[in-house]
User: Fold Serine hydrolase from Pedobacter psychrophilus.
Amino acid sequence: MKTSLKILAALLVSHLSYGQDISKKIDSIINTNYQNNPDVSISVGFVSNNKAYFTAYGNLSKDSQTKVDKNTLFEIASITKILTSNLIAQAAIENKIKLEDYIDNYLPKAYILNKNLKNKIKISDLASHQSGLPDIDFGKLIAINPQQPLNNVTEETLNKIINNCTGLDDYGKYRYSTIGYTLLGQILEKVYGKSYDEIIKSKIINPLKMTNTFTKDFDVKNKVVGYNPDGGAQEFFNWNVTAPAGLIKSNVFDMVKYLKAVLNNESAIGKAAIVTEKIFYKDEKRELGLGTNIMTDEKNTLYQKSGDSMGQSSIICYDRAKNWGIIILINQRNSKIRNTLLDEIYNSVLK
Assistant:
């Protein structure tokens, strides 16, 4: 018995040392990046075998001396889509919907589908960006209001886009879609009889005690200022009808809680995540699940989702087989820094 306990203790010490070694390597990569980009603040959370590690560099803004930490609030932007797709998968597991159901009977009454669209678009098509529906014109919206472009998107806006659509020329082909995830949010509202805000709180935020993850109200002190690629300050996006596509605000501490739940095959969120990891779309360039990009190499399968607001960039990635996950948040719209960080961490530490 004593021998068994000694072996167990040795294994635990070895496992702890392994995790700490990885976290030091990740910290070194983040530190080097920060030294090269001192105006860009970074917060990173990493989980391996249910053990969490955090690192952060930079200040809340260019004018602040307050350091960013694991509790600092960022926009997670389109990482919100991976939360929405998890809710859709939970609804499917609860038999509220079927992923292969057509969307026709799940939409608000204000939508009147053209005959060419009826019994054509499946719920899974929306979640894997292959519905063929026209999307919101962000270029025009940014020209109108560069700080809050989504302020001009209303339910009436969406009704016009959908009701004026007479055909799906690229149905079944990948085309990234904000409106698709907005519709998924409305489908969730229909089947649960609650607002998207209430649903995500009741099924993800509150159960996981993600106390620093916000929807409508995000007026907190420990919050970064975001910056566009030219260095200009950018406001956090206000909450509106497009929320299911990208308007959740969070921090790495809370997002690691989410990653832990995703990697737990027995949790409701973990079971739903496994559903989202099924391949729903594939071409020569990509494989997609529901809201997640599926990346494979000779040894590993990664599930990944990035996000960009007007002034921030983010990425989440996990390996279910190896039981690790990582979340990277930066306070500038800079996909190059974000992608380079993940690539270096993966290739030099996690692969």
The first helix runs from residue 2 to 36. Residues 10-16 have pLDDT under 50 and may be disordered.
